Each structure stands twice: as C-alpha cells, then as structure tokens.
C-alpha cells in the first residue's frame, strides 16, 4: 500500500456558515493506493471527533496504526489495490489543518478564541475545495463514522452529484440533547480548568502533563462511546490489585482505564480544537439551510448506505433508520442495517469484522 502525507495551502477565502471568512487556511490529508487515469476510483474518508487524516498504515518509527487500519489496505474491505483513498483532517482539528492554535495571518499569534466557529457544513465545503484543487470532481464513495458519518451525509445533501455511494456509520441527521449533554461535561471541565487560561495558553503547553479538564471531560466521552455490556465484559468488577478495597481512592479496573486513557489523550489533543469540534458536532443538523429534513433528504442523488449498532447510546439506531425510511418513502436508493453489537458507539472503530464485508460488497457493486 502506497501512503503519502500532504498539506495543501489555500490563499483563497473559505466562506463559513457563520458569515465569517477563514483566509488563508490549510488542509492536511493522506492518500493510499494509486489513482486511475479517469479518476473514477477515488474514495473520500471522513474522520470522527478525535481522529485525523491518518486512517491507515504506520509512520516510520511508530507502532500505532491509523484509526481504520483494519479496514483499509491491499485486499481489505477498502482495497487500496483497486481504489485511491483520500483521508482529510477537518478544519479546526489539531493534526495539521488550520485550527485555533494556527497563526492568524498576518500576525504570528495563534487565533485561540478568535478562531471562527466551524460547522460540519464548513468542514465539507473545505474538503470540496481540496478535491477541486486536486482536479477531482466526482467520487466513487464517501465513507465515515460518527462525526465522519455526519460529513458523509452533509456531502450527499449539499453536493448531490459528488459521489456514487455514501456510507455513513453510527451517525445521525441532527445531534440530539442527550449527546449535547455528554459534550457539555467536557466543555465545562476544560473551561473551568485554571491552566486552560480562557484559551490563552501557549502552543504545546500540555504535551508533558496534559490538561486535567480535558482528561475529565474525556471520561464522559468514553462512557458515551461504550455500553454497559462492553464495560462488563472488559472490566467486570475487577479491582486494581495494588489498591486497597477500603482505601477511599482505591480504584476498580474501569477507573484506572479511564484515568490512563484520558490522561494520555489530553497530552496529544489540543483543548481548543476539542471545544471547536464539539461545537461543530452539537450544531449539526441536516435541515439547516433547507425548509425541512424532508426537503434536505430529497436532494440526495447518491446511493446511501446506513449502518448503525444496536448498543450505540450516543447516536441511537432509530436516528439512522429514520433517514432510511424517509428515503424509502421518497423512492430514493437507501440501504440500512443495524449491527448486533454489545460494544456501543465505538463498535464502528473496533468490531470491523461485523461490517467490513458490507462495505466491500458496496464498493465492488
């Protein structure tokens, strides 16, 4: 598999939903495989909240593979011997694309809280600009899970002729109060951490010790990504061996896991980027800009494939099924499957064997 990492600079303005302008800006992206002569084998991947453009393979000197490594590669479901895959980093993320800690031209000072609020629609618009710059005007497929699934659906509505296939996993048509409530925990934990300094911290300030507020908020996120059954299976009621049962701050294994993973996360993910991306997720609504959800969905011309997971308590299966039923009534092409899973929302990242063959069949028609 051929992996290439790029950063594309744009001097032309990016007009945002808010009415503000981002200028200049850049997008980090990776490509896998080889593009064919007529550019008919291109697939666009869209990542979730904590993801990046690094979707597959490993970098030199590193052991951690991309977030969908089991799905992407020669002979895998998204077969890089047949398809050319583009995986982008969304605007606002801290992994190479323009974000709150990028320099605000012409100053060398970071945007920080002067960075404009970006939406899923803005992220999609920026990716359209990238594709156009690459001379790609039509795609074989757009694929994404969670926030990536939101982007895939937004592409389908805003740019009806952009792709043959839209594959959206573990997503929704609009973020509901339940999910916004989970996100609120992270937002407030970050804002009220004294070291956050209302966004006026130095770049890379948390690489060594992380930010406690982000780590605490991420615990709420982890709970929403899993399910009671998956936590039972993974941890049971096991207690940390070196902690005393009758010590006040003695821990169960699930507590130690939450501490370890969230502390590490807070060392690599910029807290301002987290706030901005959470805002984009909270404001996601396919209806915005159209008279109704019905009118928005009616614009879709691609074949849409929806995959949910029955233990997903972040974006419930009935939300994806609602899109499918609406498209079916409209006579539009849509498939829907609810995967039997005990893993929760994160099943789209973990239990690949339960749906990789579905994606393979869709792409190979």
Q: Helices and strands in order, then pairings?
A:
Elements: E1 3-10, E2 14-15, E3 21-22, E4 25-32, E5 42-46, E6 72-73, E7 78-79, E8 84-88, H1 120-133, E9 139-145, H2 147-158, E10 163-169, H3 177-191, H4 212-225, H5 228-235, H6 253-268, H7 271-282, H8 293-298, E11 303-309, H9 317-330, E12 334-339, H10 347-350, H11 356-363
Parallel strand pairs: 5-8, 5-9, 6-7, 9-10, 10-11, 11-12
Antiparallel strand pairs: 1-4, 2-3, 4-8
Helix pairs in contact: 1-2, 3-4, 3-7, 4-6
What does the model show?
By secondary structure, the chain is of the alpha/beta class. It has eleven helices and twelve strands. The protein has helices at residues 120-133, 147-158, 177-191, 212-225, 228-235, 253-268, 271-282, 293-298, 317-330, 347-350, 356-363, and strands spanning 3-10, 14-15, 21-22, 25-32, 42-46, 72-73, 78-79, 84-88, 139-145, 163-169, 303-309, 334-339. It has an eight-stranded mixed sheet with strand order 1-4-8-5-9-10-11-12, sandwiched between helices. It has a two-stranded antiparallel sheet with strand order 2-3. Strands 6-7 form a two-stranded parallel ribbon. The mean pLDDT is 96.
Summarize it:
By secondary structure, this protein is α/β, with parallel strands linked by helices. It has helices at residues 120-133, 147-158, 177-191, 212-225, 228-235, 253-268, 271-282, 293-298, 317-330, 347-350, 356-363, and strands at residues 3-10, 14-15, 21-22, 25-32, 42-46, 72-73, 78-79, 84-88, 139-145, 163-169, 303-309, 334-339.
């Amino acid at each position: 598999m051929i992996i290439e990492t790029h950063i594309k600079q744009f001097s032309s303005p990016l007009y945002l939903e808010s009415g503000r302008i981002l200028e200049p800006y850049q997008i980090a992206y990776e490509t896998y495989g080889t593009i064919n002569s007529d550019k008919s084998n291109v697939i666009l991947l869209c990542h979730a909240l904590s993801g990046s453009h690094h979707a597959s393979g490993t970098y030199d000197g590193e052991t951690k593979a991309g977030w969908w490594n089991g799905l992407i590669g020669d002979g895998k479901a998204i077969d890089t011997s047949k398809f050319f895959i583009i995986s982008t980093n969304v605007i606002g993320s801290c992994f190479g694309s323009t974000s709150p800690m990028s320099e605000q031209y012409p100053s060398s000072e970071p945007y920080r809280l002067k960075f404009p609020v970006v939406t899923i629609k803005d992220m999609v618009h920026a990716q359209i600009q990238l594709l156009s710059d690459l001379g790609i005007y039509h795609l074989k497929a757009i694929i994404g899970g969670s926030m990536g699934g939101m982007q895939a659906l937004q592409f389908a509505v805003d740019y009806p002729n952009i792709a043959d296939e839209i594959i959206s996993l573990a997503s929704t048509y609009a973020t509901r109060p339940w999910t916004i409530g989970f996100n609120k925990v992270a937002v407030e934990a970050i804002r009220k951490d004294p070291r956050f300094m209302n966004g006026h911290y130095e770049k890379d300030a948390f690489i060594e010790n992380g930010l406690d507020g982000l780590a605490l908020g991420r615990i709420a996120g982890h709970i929403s990504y899993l399910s009671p059954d998956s936590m039972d299976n993974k941890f049971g009621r096991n207690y940390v061996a070196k902690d005393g049962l009758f010590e006040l701050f003695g821990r169960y294994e699930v507590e130690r896991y939450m501490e370890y993973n969230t502390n590490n996360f807070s060392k690599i993910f910029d807290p301002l980027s987290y706030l901005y991306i959470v805002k984009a997720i909270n404001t996601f609504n396919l209806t915005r800009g159209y008279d109704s959800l019905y009118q928005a969905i009616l614009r879709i011309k691609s074949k849409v494939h929806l995959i949910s997971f029955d233990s997903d308590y972040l974006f419930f299966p009935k939300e994806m099924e609602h899109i499918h039923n609406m498209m079916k009534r409209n006579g539009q092409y849509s498939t829907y499957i609810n995967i039997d899973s005990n893993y929760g929302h994160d099943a789209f990242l973990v239990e690949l064997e339960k749906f990789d063959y579905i994606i393979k069949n869709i792409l190979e028609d």
